[in-house]
Every structure is written in structure tokens, then in C-alpha cells.
Amino acid sequence: MGKFRGFCLLIVFILFMNVNSISANAIPQGDIVETFNELVEEKVAEANIPNAVVSIVYDGEIIFEKGYGYADINSEILVDPNTSLFRIGSISKLMTWTAVMQLVEQGKLDLDSDVNEYIDFDIPPLTGSTPITLRHLLTHTPGFEDYSTEIFTLEKDNLPPLHEYVRESLPERIFPAGEVLAYSNYGTALAGYIVEQASGMPYTTYIEENIFKKLAMNYSTFEQPLRESLLEYSVTPYRFVDGSFSEAAFEFMPVPAGAMSSSASDMARLMIAYLQNGHFDDEKILEEKTVQEMFNQQFTHHPTLDGMAFGFIEGTFNDKKVLFHHGGTMMFNSALYLLPEEGLGIFMSYSGGNHFVHNEIFQGFMDQYYPMEEVVFAPVTKGTNGSIEKFAGEYHQNRKSLTTADKFISLVTGIIQVETDKDGYLYATHAGETNQFYEIEPGVFKNKRTERTPDAYGNFKTIVFEEDKHGNMMLMTDGPMTYAKAPWYASSGFTFVALALSILLLIGTLLSWIFIALVRMLLKKQKDKDKIASSAKLLAIGYGVLSLILFGSIAINGEIDPVYQMPKDAFSEIPEWSIIFDFIPYLIIAFSIALTVFTIIIWKRRSWRVFGRIHYSLYTSTALFFVWLFRYWNLF
């Protein structure tokens, strides 16, 4: 009897401990709602966000959904989390990846087959690379270059249908497949086209029938523009500019990569389905093993880095595994976060802000409910910091173009500047903030900062340096982003300083010649009788005027729109009259050649004094530098 009583006490103790364990891991739903609501309200006010929406799911239920602000300010229509349609940008890609995995389950697609087997056009091979597969597309490793100025448009007629888009916008392959993480919108569009080819139905129809209807996502669509029955639920985007909200137009973008409009309630259903292994109520969109495969890491550059699952981006926030995807259009920013081990999902969307807002809200939530233990930093030792100087330099995103004018964008977007000090620390400046790193093993560095850092795809907690097979230094971070060390002549510092000095020389020369000409006129001095020298000077003046016109056109076309926050020529029609600027580069090349010839002649003839000849030679060198610079960056 005593043994039985002891056994019962042991069982009660075990049960008690399990209950305590469950309670310790569970989050009071009321607290979640209150805390999250406060975080959102604070950030919405701080960032002047006109409209926002949130939904949170926990343990298979929607525990919070709320709209903030107005879906339409003029009509004073409030945001409704059940029906208000926000543009969710790249979160749309999750529909494409879900569709691909459904067709894999049906045996209609194979993750490791050449994608050319599924399409009716050819993707050319790349020397030294294996064929591109769906596995590469799902992990953003197909090796395509990326065109950031060909994603958005405000005119429906400017966006070709999917079957034309995948042919006409086929990018160059710049990396071997499966070797380099480089986020690819085209890769997702191609996967969407493969869904069409394998299923035998249009992409939008397939998603409607196999995802939206099964999950009762009645306020979700890929249609551009929205059909009549959904127009009244469309959220109007605004941005706070000069003290008031400016309205923006509907954005058109490649359908499978970012065109979805959805409500917070619909996105909550999607999150529940993923967190419940593909099931929602009595419906099923994926098999359990498929969901688990999608949640597992499929690619990373280094064991210490979060990489890519199938479609989802891996993240570690306060030591918790998070699967997430962000979405950004010119006007909307959205985020979807899943914590599978906690049964928790969070969705946010808003217009008029930036991706830092949802990063900060989510990090604030994690700090509240999953606080980090105090971090003890290991001291830097001589054994680890002996050769970190080789990592110093400027790094550019590998998500870039090498063959179009978009190449120049790599000088202004996503640059990481790396410096080292004598104490063995490394400093990485990214998005305007500098973080201090210490080396934990050769080439692997940990951030000493524990709070959020401004990185769109990860926490920027760990960075890894490795040389590729060509000897180029690579910088790798969490998520689908990698960076390559730029040579000195392609760095932003060299390019912009050299450009500024050259423009100053050009303008200074023109002004000095004009001044000298005016003085000569006032003093009634005779004109220069050396016709060769006069012709050389007139040629240089003509070149200078053409160059200033070209720089002026670049400045006008490259001006950032205050509402859409992109250069106008990146999303709108270029005026027909601007075609005249297309001829200027060819004239500048011709003038540069002529300047070179005249430089040789004036030195042979000893025209002007030595200083004048040196000045003219510098002027000609500047002209040749401009030709090289503009050709290198594909600007003409």
C-alpha cells in the first residue's frame, strides 16, 4: 500500500510539473492583444501611417485582428480586418510556393528536374553551372540577375501577361545555380508560370481553386486591377508628405511574385493552415510531411547562418526559430511571421511606411514575451583576429544587375562598409547604422549589439566571410541576401568622388573660358589667330554643354518621387520627347574621340602655354573617364 501511495504521489508530481511547464510556455491571450495593440498604435502614430491592419493566430485560433486608420480618408471608411484589402507584396510568393508543392505532391512536378522540362521556351545554359531546378527557385539560388526598376508600374498596359513576361524579362544568369543566395522576383514569376504549365489552368485560377476557396479566403485575389465586386474593399495607399497625406495609385506588378491583395482575416486562415500542418477546419492544402519539408532549412551558406526554407525565410529572434516573409511594394509594407514551435502567427500590413516599422513591432513583441538572456561576449583573442584586415572594404548586394543600367543602383542600395581596428574588432555599417562584431572562428563574426538591427531579411547578428571559387570575397548574412566585395574602381567612394571632381573640372573650365572670353571682349583684344586652338576650345565647349545636358537629364529622371519613393522612370512612362537624350551618349563618345585627337595636335603644335595644354589634357581625360564610367555602369 505504501508503494502504491508513493507511486500515486510520483504521478501527481509529474503531472504537476508538466502542467507548470505548459503554463510557463503558454502566453496569456489577453496580454498578447493588449501588448501588440499598444506596439502597433505607437508605431502607426510615430511613422504617420494612414492605414494598417494586424491579425494574430495562436493555437489554431484567431485571437486578435484589428484595423487602424482609414481605408479611404476622403470617404472616412475605416479599415476592417475582415474585408479591407491590402497589397501584401512578396508575401504573395508563399501562394506560388504552396502551389508548387501541391503539384509536387501530385507527381506533376519534381523539385530537382531542369525547369526547362516544364516550360515552352528555353533558359540558356550557363558555363560551369548545373541546370536550374524548382529547388533553386524556392530557395532563391537560381543565379539570375535582378532588375529593381522593372517590377512596378502604374499602367496596366505596361505589364505584359505572365506568359509574355517570363519570356521578355528573362534575366541573365550571373551565378551558377545553387551556389549564391540572391533574391529573385523573376524566379518566382517563372515558378508561377510552371504552375500554369503543370496544372493546365491560369495561375490566378489555380490559386483561387486550390488555396483561396479551400481556406475560405474570400477577400483575397491576384487580380490587377481588382474586379468590381472587390473594389469597394480596396485600401487606398497614402504617404505623409509635407504635412498631409498624399494619395497613390494602384500598383501593377508580376503576378506570382507580388500582386496579391488580401485581408488580415484571410491571412490569419493561411497562417493557421501552415501551423496546423496544412489543415484548416475540414480542408487540407498540403500534406503534413510537405509542410515540414517547407519549414526545414534547405539552403544556407554557413551552419551559423539562418538561410532559406522552401519559400520561407529563416530567422532567429531572441533565440526563437521564426519562419517569415516580408512584402514591400512602393506604397505598402507587410510581414508574416510564424513561430511553429509556439503555434503562433502574426501578420501586419500598412501603407505609407517602411519595413523598419514591422521589424520594430515584431522585435518589441519578442522582447516582451521571449526576452533574451543576458549575453556574455567572448573576448577577442590573438588566435582569431590575425588577418581580419582582408575583410575590410565595400560590399555590394548580389541581388543586382550586371547587364543593364540597374547596375548603378548597387552604388546606392544595400551597401555594407566594413572596417577593422587594431584591437581585432570589425565594424559593419549598413543602412546608416554601424555594428561592432567580434570573431568567434575564422571568418565568422558575431554582433555585439543585441537589439534589432536595420536589415530587411534577418537580424544581422552573424556575418560570415568566404572567398568564392574565383577568389572574390563574399559577405553572407541571415536570409536570402549575400554581398560581394567591390573592387576599388567600383566602390561608391571612388565613383562619386571622381564623378564630383570631374564635374567640377568640367564646369570650372566652361566658366573660366566664358570669363576669359568676356574679358577679351571688354579689353577689345584680338581673337586667337590659331584656328586649331580655337577649334579645340569650341569642341571642348560643345562637349561640356552636352555633358551638362546629359547630367541634367539623369538628375531629372533619377529624381525620387516623394510619394512612391522611387525614381519616376522606374514606375511610369518616360515622356516621348525624352528620346532625344538617347542620342547624346553617342555624341559624347564622338566628342571624346575628337578631344583626344585635338589634345595630341595641340601638344605637337605647342598651342597655348604649357599650363593651357595640361589643362586641356585633363579636360580630355575627364571626357574619357566619363565614357568609361558610363559604359561600366551601363548608363549608355
What does this structure look like?
The chain is an alpha+beta fold and 636 residues long. The protein folds into three domains: 53-369, 3-Layer(aba) Sandwich (Beta-lactamase), CATH 3.40.710.10; 388-486, Beta Barrel (Lipocalin), CATH 2.40.128; 491-632, no CATH class. It is 37% helix and 18% strand. It is built from 16 helices and 22 strands. It has helices at residues 2-25, 29-46, 93-105, 134-138, 162-168, 185-199, 203-212, 228-231, 255-258, 264-275, 288-295, 355-369, 492-522, 531-557, 584-605, 610-632; strands spanning 51-58, 61-72, 77-78, 86-87, 220-221, 238-241, 244-247, 261-262, 279-280, 283-284, 313-317, 320-328, 332-339, 344-351, 393-397, 416-420, 426-430, 433-441, 444-447, 462-467, 473-476, 482-485. The strands form five sheets. An eight-stranded antiparallel β-barrel has the order 15-16-17-18-19-20-21-22. The chain has a seven-stranded antiparallel beta sheet with strand order 3-2-1-14-13-12-11, sandwiched between helices. It has a three-stranded antiparallel beta sheet with strand order 4-8-5. Strand 12 and strand 13 (332-339) form a beta hairpin. Helix 14 packs antiparallel against helix 15. The longest helix is centred in the C-terminal third of the chain and has 31 residues, at 492-522. The radius of gyration is 29 Å and the shape is elongated. The chain starts with a helix and ends with a helix. 40% of the residues are buried. Residues 1-25 have low confidence and may be disordered.
